[in-house]
Amino acid sequence: MSGVFISYRRSDSPDATGRIYDRLVAGFGKAQVFKDVDSIPLRQDFRGHLNDIVGNCGVILAIMASSVRRAFVCVLALWAIGGGAQAAAPQWLALPPTPTLPKAAASGYAPVDGIKIWYAEFGRGPPVILLHGGLANADYWGNQVRALEGRYRVVVVDSRGHGRSTRDTAPFGYDL
Q1: Could you give the CA distance from residue 65 to residue 16 in angstroms, rounded to a whole number?
Q2: CA of 66: how far to CAs of 9, 71, 170, in Å?
Q3: pTM value?
Q4: Which residues contact 125 (CB under 8 A, 6 or more apart)?
Q5: Quick one: which of 55, 61, 53, 81 has its CA closest to 21?
Q6: Using CA atoms, how far apart are residues 82 and 57, in angstroms rounded to an integer?
Q7: Which of 43, 45, 157, 172 lies at a C-alpha separation of 20 to 30 Å from 142?
Q8: Residues 6+ apart with CB under 8 A from 144
Q9: Which of 170, 118, 123 is nearest to 139 (CA)?
Q10: What is the DSSP letter of 79?
């Protein structure tokens, strides 16, 4: 679970909110439940801290009820709409699987400054070179390769120390 943020109307719902907060803390732990301004440490940037907390929460509860019963009904409705007991998975767990590359027309290793850089070629036509970002590999271009290989010669490369390419003792960097 990535966290629950509770916002409440102080004029009529602090008691109901307190009880809901206690139940959520018992179930998920204090580190996962944030109760509006009550969770902001003293001398913190109010807006910045709230933005960070809300941005990292998978559930936001807004409680505006004068009784625990009404507040509980609101929480149950939100819980049901949100999928019930299924806790929101952290975003990095919910990402789609990494695409696969289609069958390459050619692939291999190019020796460069004492290491081996893996590459693969697809299609025919004017060349398009796809170089992945940090901590990834060429497989992430699988969908783009499929879209481009009918009109272009697409070359994908695994950067030094990424994917199938080797590395030496030099620190990671992205200089070409």
Answers
A1: 8
A2: 9, 8, 63
A3: 0.49
A4: 151, 152, 153
A5: 61
A6: 13
A7: 172
A8: 130, 154
A9: 118
A10: H
